[in-house]
Amino acid sequence: MKKFIILVFSLFIVSCSNDNNSSSEPENIEGTILKSYKEDSPNGNIHLFENEGSRYEKIVFSTGEILIKFAYDSNNKMTKTTVSPDSNPSTTTFTYNNDGQIIKMEKDNRKLGTEGKLFVWLFSYNNNVVTGELVSDQDPNFNHIKVQYTFNNEGLLISKHDYVDYPAKENRPIRTNSYITLKYDNNKNLVLLKMTQNGTHDLPDSPASLYVNTATYEYDDKPNPVHKVYMNHYMNYILSNEYPFVLERGSIQDRVTGTGTNNLIRTTYSNSESGGIPVDNVYKNIYTYQLNNLPSKMARISTVDNKKDSGLIFNYSAK
To answer: Residues 107, 90: contact at Cβ < 8 Å?
Structure first.
């Protein structure tokens, strides 16, 4: 991919002082179970959670129509996501082995008509490495597209290699589409994401190409309310690369819905970023916290004019 863009609700910076990162008077709001959060704009989507706030239920438009619906089995395994709008209807289904590992993923957007296809991915496991292979998109010539995911001993993604492994008879080297590395702090917050792009014909340990994008992240010391939701279905989000957690588009920690145990307060992109990122490459998030230290509001502040650009509003319940 040649884009390293941000989708709907990117998060931004705050100064190192917690006094500058939050309201001076915490809100006395009861409840610790996340029920929903809303993008703080007139037409902002609403993200709804269920099962005591441990998993996504659906994402709806401000008018109430369903954007994405999530389905699970009796073991709380995500089995399907359905994107509802008529303009882009699609489903992603997951198949598991007896060990609970995802072994097949089918992404079906054939409802689009002649442009729609069925993409079938098979996954194999070797210790901390998972390899996905595209075996069908209704074209047998595409079965050489692969993605290799490497995880650390704590189960967090540390690299992703998207490449083309041409058939042996073609006698062509592996072509890397993108190579991503990720680093974390002691609280398992992502602190650095680096992406090398644009079709280098080298393996990931070869000299980096000129097309390298980076993002660095900083956090507060308070709990991220969406951490549990994300980690309960971490592999689904990583392997599917689908909204609302698109790795190639810089998500993971660019939005509040991330792996981190804490809330993102500062994001800095390399100056070479392009494809949807504003001129300002540093952002701040200003939080209002409840007395229990959970965020009730987040405001995205532009560092160009210090004006509010967007934000999030959280809703909790006691049970």
So the answer is: yes
What digits encode the pLDDT tens for the residues 91-114?
999 999 999 999 999 999 887 766
Q: For residue 303, what are its two tokens?
A: 């560092």
Question: Domain total for the chain?
Answer: 1
For residues 9 and 282, the answer to whether their CB atoms sit within 8 Å is: no
CA distances from 21 to 13, 24, 25, 256, 295 (A): 9, 9, 12, 15, 11
pLDDT digits (tens, 9 = 90+) for 176-188: 778 888 899 999 8
pLDDT band at 245 (very low <50, low <70, confident <90, very high): very low
Q: What is the CATH number of the domain that holds 80?
A: 2.40.160
Domain membership of residue 142 (yes or no) is yes
Q: Quick one: how far is CA 181 from the chain centroid?
A: 14
Give 307 or 205, the one with higher predicted confidence: 307
What single DSSP character describes residue 156? -
Q: Which of 66-80, 130-144, 222-236 has the highest mean pLDDT?
A: 66-80
Residue 239 is classified by DSSP as: H
Burial of 71 (0-12, 13-18, 19+ CB in 10 A): middle
The span from the CA of 217 to the CA of 247, in Å, is 15
Domain enclosing residue 37, as ranges: 18-317
